[in-house]
Amino acid sequence: MQSPEESQPLDAELPYGATATRGPLIVTVLGALLGSVFAAVSTSDFMQHLDRQVHAIHCSFIPGAGKELGESGCKAVMMSPYSSFFRESFWGGVPVSLWALATFAFLVYRAGLLLWRGKPSRAETTLLLAATALPVLMSLIYGYLSVAKVGETCKVCVGIYLSSALVFVGALLTHLKNPAAPDHQPVQGRFALWFFEGVGFVAVLSATYLFFTPAPDKKTSLTGCGSLVSGDDPNGVMIPLPSGEGEAAIEVLDPLCPACKAFDERLGASALRKRLDLKAVLFPLDPACNWMVTEALHPGACAVSEAMLCAGGVGGGPKDEKAAQDVLKWAFKNQDKLRELAAKDEGALRTKIETTFPKVKGCLGGTLVKSKLTKSLRWAVANAIPVLTPQLFVGNSRMCDEDSDLGLEFTLSRMLSKQGKTARAQLKPPPRPVVVAPVPAPKPVAPRPAAADPGDPPAQPEPEATPEPETAP
């Protein structure tokens, strides 16, 4: 069924028809088409990563160009918790770029229809202006999140922001150049029509996306990939992290590891962190203290790890969990500078650490803290931990590496569920039987000799031997 304005003949004489709106409408259509291309590129990159593999990502102001495999601002933004919605319900969630694509497609349709008809009413240009304000508002919000929260800028996202501004300017000029004239249909009816059309665009694209989204392995979502031999901490090497109350969890990290920083930010932004009693085990990928690595992947990580342990009270001072967490926050914030300084002169890095955290002076580099860090590494060896960071253990189960980015909330919510706990319990080996030491048999007692004659005095009993102390087998 066609709307009243669509069923109107093209040559109908209306009192408000003007050609001044043609140019601005063309700008609006072109801006919406450009935004659709940028949003489609971003959505395509997101969908490729749903197979839990590593793929190149487009990151350029030219749509479809700048595809690269390494780190980039676009990858950082895509892996952030702000790139999609409903992550706990769907694998990876629904990317916000998909909704941007639906919005721009709707604007192409509506602005294109007004351009084809050539005689937009005042109500139509008002609604077009209101519709284009939505992508502008979302661009402001996500631009802020990109800079303030993620700390990176995505060139493809900037392309979407510029396209949003372009369609808004085109719609504004269309509205300003459209002469005021009476409308033959109330604006409320047209608003409802446009609103439900826009919702339809979003619903259809979202349903199509979810239908083609690959589903992860349900078993690994519940049980993870591997488990700890023992989650105990007899040597006190674990450092409590800011978290909530819930299931015990262990994060194996390197304070100068960029992936650890990104993972910690994703986990911190998730509401699920409040359901974890989280502790950290230090695993610096630096041969200065870690004999399991042959090259300095993160130079200076040993020194910073020692500083965390010293701040926590290893050197004999009072135990201070917050001080250790402060060192970790500082290391995450200044990772690039600290690695660069350590690569040139590790002594200079240690001096900088002592200057920033005077409490660690006298402990940093000492025998006690080096022994504690060695015990932390030996904890990893005893539990057969892979030589990589970060790693997350929920209970004793290890989250799969490929689930620690886009699938973090989806997988973690299932590992924390009752069903996930039951599945992990079924995978645990049966408890070892308790061996009870045998009770030693009593020593034989020699019989007392009978009296030779009833008139003789009774024999004195032999003194009982003092029992020997029993020793545990």
Short description:
This protein is an alpha+beta fold and 473 residues long. The protein has helices at 22-48, 73-79, 96-117, 122-150, 155-177, 187-212, 218-223, 258-269, 301-311, 321-333, 335-344, 346-356, 367-382, 408-416, 418-427, and strands at 57-58, 67-68, 84-85, 94-95, 239-240, 247-253, 276-282, 391-394, 397-398.
Report on this structure.
The chain has 473 residues and is α+β, with helices and mostly antiparallel strands. It has two domains: 19-212, Up-down Bundle (de novo design (two linked rop proteins)); 222-427, Glutaredoxin (3-Layer(aba) Sandwich), CATH 3.40.30. The chain is built from 15 helices and nine strands. It has helices spanning 22-48, 73-79, 96-117, 122-150, 155-177, 187-212, 218-223, 258-269, 301-311, 321-333, 335-344, 346-356, 367-382, 408-416, 418-427, and strands at 57-58, 67-68, 84-85, 94-95, 239-240, 247-253, 276-282, 391-394, 397-398. The strands form three sheets. Strands 5-7-6-8-9 form a five-stranded mixed beta sheet, with helices on both faces. The protein has a two-stranded antiparallel sheet with strand order 1-2. A two-stranded antiparallel ribbon has the order 3-4. Helix 1 packs antiparallel against helix 5, helix 9 (301-311) runs antiparallel to helix 10 and helix 9 (301-311) packs across helix 13. It starts with 21 loop residues before the first helix and ends in a 46-residue tail after the last helix. Residues 4-18, 429-437 and 445-473 have low confidence and may be disordered.
